[in-house]
Amino acid sequence: MKTALFVWGGWDGHEPRQSVEVFVPILEAEGYRVEVFDTLEPFADEAKMNSLDLVVPCWTMGSITAEQEKGLLGAISGGTGIAGWHGGMCDAFRSCTNYQFMTGGQWVAHPGDIRTYTVKIVKRNDPIVAGLSDFQMTSEQYYLHIDPSNEVLATTTFDGTSAPWIAGCVMPVVWKRAWGKGRVFYSSLGHVARDFNVPECREIMRRGMLWASR
Question: What pLDDT score was predicted for residue 174?
Fold first, then answer.
């Protein structure tokens, strides 16, 4: 039986507990034994972290200790997978640049706040997005600073309504990458739990978690 660890916390505006509750039963239905914590303390337990198949963080902003950072990043480099969404993964631990190096991106803005935009599938033969069509989200459209080594699976284009200088900018929305022996998956979708009512949004996250898992 594979094992997955969810940790939730940080800024409550991203509904971390409610969002995690969307995906716990999904992984359980895939045969995983799932643990859920509202603390980062498990990250400091190196033996535990190295035994996991998957870590799913949902922790916007906040801080991480040196011991927690070492346990998390060491486990991923050793083969434990990590998958996450929105600010719960790529707006966490802003002072920890090694964490940002691992995730492959960092949130910097969401021009226009809640708005309707299109997510474009750009690597249609990848199993994480195969068979899915372009779709619309009404949520925050994330502007991120991106690692060029990411393998981008979906993008969005900014129309410049709220920030004219970025009109036409194509921004990655979904990507995967490596960190040592571990697989890293990220989707910028999922500002609040109801965003996962969009079938494509939820399915991309489900497939991404399974792909990232050891």
Answer: 99
Average pLDDT value for residue range 153-172: 98
Give me the residue label for tokens 């090694």: 98
Round to whole Å and give the CA distance between 21 and 38.
12
Are the CB atoms for 142 and 174 separated by under 8 Å?
A: no
The owner of tokens 């660890």 is 5
User: What are the φ/ψ torsions at residue 60 (nearest 5 degrees)?
Assistant: -80, 135
CB 53 within 8 A of CB 74: no
Q: Which CATH class is domain 3-212?
A: alpha beta
User: Considering the entire predicted model, what is its pTM?
Assistant: 0.98
Is-contact 62 35, C-beta < 8 A? Answer: no
Say how far apart CA 187 and CA 165 lie, in whole Å. 24
Q: What is the DSSP letter of 196?
A: G
**Span 86-102, pLDDT tens digits:** 999 999 999 999 999 99
Question: What pLDDT, in 10s, does the model give residues 34-44?
Answer: 999 999 999 99
Tell me the domain boundaries of the chain.
3-212
H-helix or E-strand spanning residue 204? helix 199-212
Close Cβ partners of 202 (under 8 Å, ≥ 6 residues apart) = 22, 196
Listing DSSP states for 16-46 in one string gives: HHHHHHHHHHHHHHTT-EEEEESSSGGGG-H
Nearest residue to 36 via CA among 70, 57, 5: 5
| C-alpha of 122 from chain center | 18
